């Protein structure tokens, strides 16, 4: 029966990605897509009415932050498991996503088998992450001599969101609109980022943001 299937909510602002994911998931005999959302607000509405078992969430949404959505979901809908499916490099974002409340992280460049495998791992109570990320976690939390954190890794989740959007060419007003915060708040985050990355001014901040966004430096 359809209602016995494991229900999944898709949260991504690209219709083609949602269509591809829905087709992939609905081909599995025990999985079904119960809803699709392109923004955090829309996703929260579906969570209240459709009661999915799992949500697959992109970090970059049409409106709002995927990381902030995950944090909200963890508090408001703790029974819903979360897997991040994102274009952003797992080295920079997987640990943040897991700390926020996700149970898995898969990059969009991975094969469809990896996505289905991550869903299966999360359903069984495990973390659905790559071997590389699992090794990083082990090094960070188990090793007596974990690797040092890079300057960008020292940024808070919100600071990193601002840094990333600046690197994509947004000005402070656009960043404020995207994250639903005030321009003054964005400016405050920018000041903190400059301090943490030891940057002298806004020009250096913009240059470093673009450099990090394009090449994954740090």
What's this entry about, in short?
By secondary structure, the protein is an alpha/beta fold. It has helices spanning 15-26, 40-50, 66-76, 90-100, 112-123, 131-141, 157-167, 172-179, 183-196, 202-215, and strands spanning 6-11, 31-37, 54-57, 81-86, 104-107.
Description:
The protein has a 5-stranded parallel beta sheet with strand order 2-1-3-4-5, with helices on both faces. The longest helix is centred in the C-terminal third of the chain and has 14 residues, at 183-196. The model has no long low-confidence stretch (mean pLDDT 88). α4 links the parallel β4 (81-86) and β5. It is an alpha/beta fold. The protein has helices spanning 15-26, 40-50, 66-76, 90-100, 112-123, 131-141, 157-167, 172-179, 183-196, 202-215; strands at residues 6-11, 31-37, 54-57, 81-86, 104-107. The chain folds into 2 domains: 2-141, Response regulator (Rossmann fold, 3-Layer(aba) Sandwich); 152-215, Orthogonal Bundle (Arc Repressor Mutant, subunit A), CATH 1.10.10.
Provide tags for this entry.
2 domains, five-stranded parallel sheet, 10 helices, 218 residues, Rossmann fold, Arc Repressor Mutant, subunit A, alpha/beta, globular
Strand order of the largest sheet: 2-1-3-4-5
State the shape.
Answer: globular
What is the CATH architecture term of the largest domain?
3-Layer(aba) Sandwich
Q: What is the ordering of alpha helices and beta strands?
A: EHEHEHEHEHHHHHH
CATH class of the largest domain: Alpha Beta
CATH superfamily of the largest domain: Response regulator
**Helix content class:** 40-55%
For the terminal residues, how far apart are their CA atoms? 50 Å
């Amino acid at each position: 029966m359809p209602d016995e299937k494991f229900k999944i909510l898709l949260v991504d602002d690209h219709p083609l990605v949602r269509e591809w994911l829905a087709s992939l998931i609905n081909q599995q005999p025990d999985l079904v897509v119960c809803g699709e959302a392109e923004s955090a607000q829309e996703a929260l509405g579906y969570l209240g009415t459709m009661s999915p078992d799992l949500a697959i969430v992109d970090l970059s949404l049409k409106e709002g932050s995927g990381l902030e959505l995950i944090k909200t979901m963890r508090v408001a809908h703790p029974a819903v498991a979360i897997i991040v499916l994102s274009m952003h490099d797992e080295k920079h974002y997987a640990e943040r996503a897991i700390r926020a409340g996700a149970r898995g992280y898969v990059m969009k460049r991975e094969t469809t088998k990896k996505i289905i495998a991550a869903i299966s791992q999360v359903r069984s109570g495990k973390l659905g992450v790559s071997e590389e990320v699992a090794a990083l976690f082990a090094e960070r939390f188990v090793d007596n001599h974990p690797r040092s954190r890079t300057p960008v890794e020292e940024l808070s989740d919100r600071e990193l969101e601002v840094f990333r959007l600046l690197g994509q060419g947004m000005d402070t007003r656009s960043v404020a609109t995207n994250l639903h915060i005030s321009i003054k708040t964005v400016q405050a985050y920018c000041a903190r980022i400059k301090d943490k990355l030891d940057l002298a001014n806004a020009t250096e901040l913009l240059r470093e943001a673009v450099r990090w966004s394009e090449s994954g430096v740090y």
